[in-house]
Here is the input.
Amino acid sequence: MADFSNLAAAFLVTGFFAGLVYALRMATWGGALGGFVVGVVVYASLGLQGFAVLTLFVVGGSLLTRLGFRSKERQGAAEAQKGRRGARNAFANCGVALLCALLAALTTSGAVVAAFIAALGAAFADTAESEVGQLYSRSPYLITTLQEVPPGTDGAVSVPGTLAGLAAAGLTALLGLALGIVTGPSIMLLIALAAFLGSVMDSLIGALVPSVGNEVTNVLCTLVAAGLAFFLA
Here is the structure.
């Protein structure tokens, strides 16, 4: 599946996209550079199809972060740096997908491609759950105790956020199917399920070990999703 002769195209397309993301204030300079590294590897490993799945997460996640940003600021739940993502965020959310893309290039394994899509789907679902939940739910509850907690609390979940997470996971898997890198509807559903369960794991970790930090939970979220997709697909 990989075609490393596309490396020049990978640099060109990813460089343009990273510059656009920075110009639109979706990421800091470091975030744009980190995204460029991730994008080059993904494009070189899985071609334009893999890059398109990555783009869905980056653009979709950024738009959801900006959605109702002033309201989130008033609640004290908005992302730092005016919602602009940094390098740590880029690698925490996309590091597992990056490794899966490399493995897919080396092995041409459909299961690894499924893991790649699930990892990005989990990152997108987690972002959707957080951003939509903070904006549209006034009474989120802790996933472990079901007690009401303030919006933005680690491990908090809500009905609007959960539905948004399901939609993001499903949309990512559906895009993979439409692009031809997911082999059929049944595999698509398994990938969507794995991605959503990865985001659930993020909430569980946040509730049980809030001190672990957002980047670590993001890595574990995507790792769980990738592992589930690899073994289920």
